[in-house]
Design goal:
The complex is a heterodimer of chains A (118) and B (112).
Chain A lengths: L2 E5 L2 E3 L5 E8 L8 E6 L5 E7 L6 E3 L7 E6 L4 E6 L8 E9 L3 E5 L3 E5 L2
Parallel strand pairs in A: 2-11
Antiparallel strand pairs in A: 1-3, 3-8, 4-5, 4-9, 5-6, 7-8, 9-10, 9-11
Chain B lengths: L8 E4 L5 E6 L11 E6 L6 E4 L13 E6 L2 E6 L8 E8 L7 E3 L3 E5 L1
Parallel strand pairs in B: 1-9
Antiparallel strand pairs in B: 2-6, 3-4, 3-7, 5-6, 7-8, 7-9
Classes of the chains: A mainly beta (118), B mainly beta (112).
């Protein structure tokens, strides 16, 4: 059974940092593009970042470029999102997601809430 | 990159059919057959309902169907059921900006 389990969310002050983790199981992690998707409270979904199977390609939404870094450790079946210089507008549930085919997410984690507030 | 445009809400009675539109541009919806649809119930993670415009993943009811014409994709739910009440989001590959994917604004489906 495919499982994606996020951790690392919490309350952080503006300007602070947080590192999200996603533990993957039930599939060959190294064979899939992975992604982080976020959803602000009461708002829609937003792609945050994607990473290729071997980590050689990474893409970010403009609003997080230079502040967030997506990475993966295929030996540990884990996906990460390092978030620095956090802003109030980064407050959201962050989902770890597995890409299927060229442009579809077939598995999602349960999400982890990040709250940026003083 | 602006979000794809969806109606804020659509409603229908049980048994009826409804259609949700998703309008983009030639750089996304109109340029590629990489449109997918997700269903999201409150407090839950999204679920893939349609991929690559019109394909249903295993386990998704055949009451859900997808199509595309020009820059607009559509999701049709036939034989509407109470459990279909949820938020629906389209998504598309886009060539205009990273991370090369964009979601729609979301549509709240209400079963009357």
């Amino acid at each position: 059974e495919v499982q994606l389990v996020e951790s690392g969310g919490g309350l952080v002050q503006p300007g602070g940092s947080l590192r999200l983790s996603c533990a993957a199981s039930g599939f060959t992690f190294s064979s899939y593009w992975m992604s982080w998707v976020r959803q602000a409270p009461g708002k829609g979904l937003e792609w945050v970042a994607n990473i290729k199977q071997d980590g050689s390609e990474k893409y970010y939404v403009d609003s997080v470029k230079g502040r967030f870094t997506i990475s993966r450790d295929n030996a540990k079946n884990s996906l990460y999102l390092q978030m620095n210089s956090l802003r109030a507008e980064d407050t959201a549930v962050y989902y770890c997601a597995r890409f299927f085919g060229a442009a579809n997410v077939d598995y999602w984690g349960q999400g982890t809430l990040v709250t940026v507030s003083s | 990159q602006s979000a794809l445009t969806q109606p804020a809400s659509v409603s229908g009675s049980p048994g009826q059919s409804i259609t949700i539109s998703c309008t983009g541009t030639s750089s996304d919806v109109g340029g590629y057959n990489y449109v997918s649809w997700y269903q999201q119930h409150p407090g839950k993670a999204p679920k893939l309902m349609i991929y690559e415009v019109s394909n249903r993943p295993s386990g998704v009811s055949n009451r859900f169907s997808g199509s595309k014409s020009g820059n607009t994709a559509s999701l049709t739910i036939s034989g509407l059921q109470a459990e279909d009440e949820a938020d629906y989001y389209c998504s598309s590959y886009t060539s205009s900006s990273t991370p090369y994917y964009v979601f729609g604004t979301g549509t709240k489906v209400t079963v009357l």
